[in-house]
Amino acid sequence: MAVSVHTQTSPGDKGLQAGALGLVGNVVIGLSAVAPAYSLAATLGYVVAQVHTKAPAMFVIAFIPMLLIAFAYRELGRDTPDCGTTFTWATKAFGPWIGWMGGWGLAVSAIIVLANVAEIAAVYLFEFLHLDGLAENLWVKVAVGSLLIVAMTWVSIRGIVISERMQNVLIAVQFGVLIVASVVALVKVATDTAGPQAISPSWSWLWPSGVSSSELAAAVILCIFIYWGWDACLAVGEETRDAERTPGRAAVLTTLILVCTYVLVAYAVQSFAGFGDTGIGLNNPDNADDVLTILGGPVGGIVMSSALLLTVSISALSSTQSTILPTARGTLSMAVYEALPRRFARIHPRYMTPAFGTAVMGGAALMFYLVLSLVSQNTLGDSVASLGLAVAFYYGVTAYACVWYFRRTLLHSARNLFMRGVFPLLGGIAMTWAFIQSATDMIAPDYGSTSVGGVGGVFIMGVGMLVLGIPLMLLCVAGGRDFFRGRTLTATTEVKVPDVP
Fold this sequence. Notes:
Keywords: Cell membrane, Membrane, Transmembrane, Transmembrane helix. It is found in: Cell membrane. This is Amino acid transporter. Pfam families: AA_permease_2 (PF13520). The chain is mostly helical. 68% of the residues lie in helices and 2% in strands. The protein is built from 17 helices and 4 strands. It has a two-stranded antiparallel sheet.
């Protein structure tokens, strides 16, 4: 189907449902994409293993570049409220090649995480239902995980409004259970009813003293994972009221909510569980995979234990759906500017969503999940560890794009200098450092659970998935697309939209 392009007159002219979301709905989409309960369950134990008592400090340190990059997203979103986000902005700043790879970095992140959160949702659901045998059965896990990917892809196709309504309920459950469990745990510690393993919280946990650069990099890259996803606020910007301002505000607000929640939970877990190497102690290697739900019984009995299991399942399910949303909209924008086949620009006439792109992203995640699951569960686990590289890559590209795109206006005011220059630049440098340091550490064959030819499987997975974008990009170049000739998107191009029935 032919796609004609014209200058945007209002957000949503791509055929998306303009004005469907407000500030609260936008924040909910961002929070649900992060999946805070699942992210904490999956990473807190490993952060503690890296830095011992300094996990809260790592959450704060990782939050700083997240906030700095959120400023970059806000400024770029105000100037160019396009659902392509990193792809569009990096192209306007640096040209089509870097822009395309920036878009690929976002897609890679989504594909990797979707394969993992779908299985996590299934496993924790089985454990909530006391079907532990099914939770350990590979074929059952894969079948249910695949079904969840298909189901959430269908929900995403059905429209942004139904997605928001579902996410409102899921995010309320997540934060409600996390906050209640944390407060109860801290109260028990304060009243000396938490047990002999508990320790008193300390302000020193917020200061990263005694942490080496490698430990810091490893912990920060893990923390980047637990913050990742807030940029979904910008990807649904064209479906948000006041698209030039609301998504940027939502991004900043989302990161603030996350850091407060993560620090609270980290303090509660460390204080209540302590750092012993037996029982629920955080230095017990059996607890590294999930230090969150092990607190359920000791903190609040069977009710809290069940609530935490269900919360992690809901969190992963929520992320499965909300991760598809921004990625599909990214492919929509890439197709509009002719960086991808024009079929990706098709909008469903009834649901007003990029149905084809959504289905393709869901299908890609499903195939990735099936291949890795059937090859090795260790490989699937290493793919999560590698996710931080892709995230650091496209966050860094976005931050640098902000500085370069606005370079001529940086000295017009103090606000421009800091919001468009200094803060994004510092955020970009932080992402670059985290990427390089982590990639260097990941090369070691004993990093993660797999290795190939003396090279760590985490490194191969992380860098390999990014490098895979190069031949895919060259295929698009071979297709003779005008995007790579600089004809469809440049620094001075107005936002373009398709007329698709």
